[in-house]
Amino acid sequence: MATIKDIAKRANVSISTVSRVLNNDETITVMEQTRDRILAVAKELNYSSKKKNVIKDLSRNESAKIGLLMGCSQEDEFDDPYFLSIRKGIEKQCTQKNIRISRFVRLQNASNEQSFEDLDGLIVVGHIDKSEINKRYNHNQNIVFVDAPAEIEVFDSVICDLEGASEKVMSHLLELGHERIGYIGGPGSGMKMHEVFESGKTGDIRQKTYESFMKKHNRLNESDIYLDNWGTPRGYRTMKKAIEKGNLPTAFFVGSDPMAIGAIRALHEAGIKVPHEVAIVSVDDIEISNFVSPPLTTVKVYTEQMGRTAVNLLQERIKGRVIPLKVVVPTKLVVRESCGATLN
Questions:
Q1: What pLDDT digit, counting tens, does each position of 207-217 carry?
Q2: How far is Cα 267 from Cα 292, in angstroms, rounded to an integer?
Q3: Which pTM does this prediction carry?
């Protein structure tokens, strides 16, 4: 069965142009011969009108039915509540907007037969291979990607400003007088640790920003970079390795709160005082970060708002918006005791 993507390829135009032409979008500026070519290809491929975007009048309380596809497992959510908070934001906003999550699928547990094709739209959370999405939902462009790469000329996306968050961490530590700052983190979105070891690169924006910042100040020492998978046990294990090697930096930028909590535990066990001997700053601001000892300085990521924003974007798409949007949610530095700034 032909899709909009098939038509776009045959007609040599973008997917969004095909969608807007087939939906009679009067705001699009396209040459008449291009419009005729798109319609001719659609007819040639027997494109079904049922495959067009479904536009619902939600103002009349007509409940939209959407799917939620998660790239993380339930265990991942337990180890790091980052994605759990995004999901909770999605669920809360759907309740407020009278939108039904008719199908919730975790990719690790999904069968090849599980499809979202009968629904009005789809929210994808976390990195999921494009082929996995295409075989489950390919009949319109009502897809919003959260914390995941997206074709920005086709689909909506919501991300947090991780680069800005990382720059806030590094600037804060530099202002506190730290000249030697280490980094603890994990693989970038969609990567596995064996791929990191093979390529020597994580692809993670936090590490990239850290390295760029340290190079700019002529202070990059690659032996101060420690990598493992994400999660509290991995942060503990990684800091143990750093302690065993000796000659620790005076501060560490840790890529996530759970890893930082594990790292602090390892420092405590070794009798190394935080922040007097080693300062720790991380990213997330999960609830428990304010209750560890010492309370964790971190950059707040508005994960619940990311989930809520995804629902709002998808609702607009279902109601007929065709121009894709990318929303970058800002972050905020939350200073607590683990960095030493509050000791004076």
A1: 999 999 999 99
A2: 13
A3: 0.78
